UniProtKB/TrEMBL annotation:
<dbReference type="InterPro" id="IPR017853">
    <property type="entry name" value="GH"/>
</dbReference>
<protein>
    <submittedName>
        <fullName>Beta-mannanase</fullName>
    </submittedName>
</protein>
<dbReference type="GO" id="GO:0016985">
    <property type="term" value="F:mannan endo-1,4-beta-mannosidase activity"/>
</dbReference>
<keyword id="KW-0326">Glycosidase</keyword>
<dbReference type="GO" id="GO:0006080">
    <property type="term" value="P:substituted mannan metabolic process"/>
</dbReference>
<comment type="similarity">
    <text>Belongs to the glycosyl hydrolase 26 family.</text>
</comment>
<feature type="active site" description="Nucleophile">
    <location>
        <position position="191"/>
    </location>
</feature>
<dbReference type="InterPro" id="IPR000805">
    <property type="entry name" value="Glyco_hydro_26"/>
</dbReference>
<dbReference type="Pfam" id="PF02156">
    <property type="entry name" value="Glyco_hydro_26"/>
</dbReference>
<keyword id="KW-0378">Hydrolase</keyword>
<feature type="active site" description="Proton donor">
    <location>
        <position position="87"/>
    </location>
</feature>
<dbReference type="InterPro" id="IPR022790">
    <property type="entry name" value="GH26_dom"/>
</dbReference>
<feature type="domain" description="GH26">
    <location>
        <begin position="1"/>
        <end position="256"/>
    </location>
</feature>
Length: 259
């Protein structure tokens, strides 16, 4: 949240989604979520069970904790997006495919969703958020899908890198096609950015051109931090100029309080 004013000023547009990462042990930051909303953005909580297995969540071992969060979210009573155990089809998180089965994931997701329903937390937009399929080509997504009753947006995490796919369709297309085989839910790009280098401006053009070519994509989150690389769009002046030009389109950055 602290970085939002500087980012907004840099790109010349009001972001309308702000993603934050929440530890499974932590409570719901109501004040922080309200600050995000008051800034005109949708709070998006990526909920990360680092210290709890998906099987134990599904079995109800964290029910008291989950109910407490759900009640706090219900009291918040404003729209909030929530994902659980994002990128579950990869192997770089402790809840990934090397540690949990698709059945574990689906059972945990449905159980948490049910607890939120019981608490009256109907203000949640549930974002199922796998990684794009290329890094794990043998991991099918359908077994990880909790079902349309339990999902509002089909998220995707995918980055433009120096050695990766060069076009939007090559990066996201295979995953989108696979998801369309079992769901028609709107897409949402949960994390994206472009690795610094000669291709960065072209990557930005590909991202926005792809978004504009698919009316079933409702939005995206630019991963605007330094983590193993500097993904900040404002880190390179020419990159910032390209991003700023494309995001100036009125389709982007409306205030969620006045859509």
């Amino acid at each position: 949240m602290d970085a939002l004013p500087g980012y907004r000023d840099a790109i010349g547009k009001q972001p309308n989604v702000l993603e934050f990462y929440a530890h499974w042990k932590g409570g719901f930051d109501t004040a922080g979520a309200r600050r995000i909303h008051d800034a005109g953005a949708l709070p998006f909580m990526a909920w990360e069970p680092h210290d709890r297995s998906l099987a134990s969540i599904a079995a109800g071992d964290t029910d008291d904790y989950v109910r407490g969060v759900a009640k706090a979210v219900a009291r918040f009573n404003l729209p909030i997006a929530v994902s659980i155990a994002h990128e579950m089809n990869g192997d770089w998180y402790p809840w990934g495919r090397q540690a949990a089965t698709p059945e574990d994931f689906v059972a945990a997701w449905r159980h948490v969703h049910d607890l939120f329903d019981q608490a009256g937390a109907t203000n949640v937009i549930w974002v199922w958020s796998p990684n794009i399929t290329d890094p794990a080509p043998n991991t099918r997504l359908a077994p990880y899908y909790p079902g349309d009753t339990y999902v509002d947006w089909a998220g995707m995490t995918g980055y433009f890198t120096k050695t990766g796919p060069k076009t939007f369709e090559a990066l996201y297309g295979p995953t989108m096609a696979e998801i369309r085989g079992f769901s028609q839910k709107p897409f949402f790009i949960s994390e994206t950015a472009s690795e610094q280098g000669k291709r960065q401006i072209a990557d930005i053009d590909q991202l926005f051109s792809g978004l504009e070519a698919h009316d079933d994509i409702v939005g995206f989150v630019w991963f605007n931090i330094v983590k193993r690389a500097d993904w900040r769009v404002e880190a390179v002046p020419d990159t910032l100029a390209a991003f700023k030009q494309r995001v100036s389109d009125p389709r982007y950055g409306f205030d969620i309080r006045n859509p």
